[in-house]
């Protein structure tokens, strides 16, 4: 199975058999976002965000798994889901963090199907 990383970050998946490293593909899947002013909080500007279309996610291809951000995964699920779309599982029992709290690896992926 070809794994295409559509995030701007390298991804490391830690398995019992060793790390699987997936470099960014150079293409990034995103969700369009529109910000509307919603006032301020003690002088700090506040906006409301409306999410739109998914951009940069190719159509399904046999033998290809697309790895996207959690936000893109949520948008794909809201649109009916796809079996070929995954995101890194950054939940506390999957994420592996360094001393500064940054995620350096995950133990598993989340699929865009329920």
Topology record:
Elements: E1 2-5, E2 11-15, E3 18-22, E4 30-41, E5 44-55, E6 64-67, H1 70-78, E7 82-88, E8 95-97, E9 103-106, E10 109-112
Parallel strand pairs: 1-6, 6-7
Antiparallel strand pairs: 2-3, 4-5, 7-10, 8-9
Characterise the protein shown here.
The chain is mainly β and 114 residues long. Helix content is 8%, strand content 53%. The chain has one domain (2-112). It contains 1 helix and 10 strands. The strands form 4 sheets. The protein has a 4-stranded mixed sheet, covered by helices on one side. It has a two-stranded antiparallel sheet with strand order 2-3. Strand 8 and strand 9 form a beta hairpin. The relative contact order is 0.22. The model has no long low-confidence stretch (mean pLDDT 97).
Helix content: under 10%
Output the strand order for the largest sheet.
Answer: 1-6-7-10
Mass-distribution shape = globular
Rg measurement, Å = 16 Å
* Total domain units: 1
Helix/strand order: EEEEEEHEEEE
Main sheet, how many strands, which sense, barrel?
Answer: 4 strands, mixed
**DSSP, total strands:** 10
Proportion of strand residues: over 45%
Q: Output mean pLDDT.
A: 97
Tell me the structural class: mainly beta
| Tally of helical segments | 1
Q: Quick gist of this model?
A:
By secondary structure, this protein is mainly beta. Helix content is 8%, strand content 53%.
List keywords for this structure.
114 residues, mainly beta, 10 strands, 8% helix, 53% strand, globular
